[in-house]
Structure formats: C-alpha cells, structure tokens
Design goal:
This protein is mainly α. It is built from 6 helices and no strands. Helix 4 packs antiparallel against helix 5. The longest helix is centred in the middle third of the chain and has 21 residues. It comes from Pneumocystis jirovecii.
Length: about 80
C-alpha cells in the first residue's frame, strides 16, 4: 500500500496497519505501535502542561496517526 491508497482515507482497517510504510521499510508492527504510542504520549504530556482541553489532545492524536499512515515514522521526532 502506498500513499495513493491512503489519500483522503480517514478510516483504516486493522489490515491497513500491517502494511504501513514503516512496516514495509523493515520495522516490526510492534515497534511501530510503540512509537505511535510515544508520539501520543508526548502530545498528552505537552497538552496537559498547556492545560489544553481533552478534545484538542484527542484531535492532535488522530492527526498524528493520520499523518503517519502514508509516511515512515521518524525516530528523531519521537525521541
């Protein structure tokens, strides 16, 4: 699955997560899930310090996942 298959798509099946660009690049599915979790955790930590509403944090988490469906996760960003 490349970018074109995800373009404009907001709902993903479990099957879609098995073939993300990161997994296709050699990452394990478990590593990708852990790194996605780290990204969401970062959003929550920063958002809590800024006293942002939960809706804002949840929306940011959705956008993080949405952005990285057609992209390879970057370790530099998530560290």
């Amino acid at each position: 699955m490349g970018y074109s298959s995800h373009k404009g798509k907001w709902y993903f099946d479990k099957e879609d997560f098995k073939y993300t660009p990161s997994v296709s690049d050699g990452w394990s599915l478990e590593k990708e899930q852990i790194d996605r979790g780290k990204g969401v955790n970062f959003i929550i930590q920063v958002g809590a310090r800024l006293k942002l509403p939960q809706l804002t944090l949840s929306t940011a988490a959705v956008f993080l996942h949405r952005f990285y469906m057609p992209e390879i996760l970057n370790n530099k960003i998530l560290k």
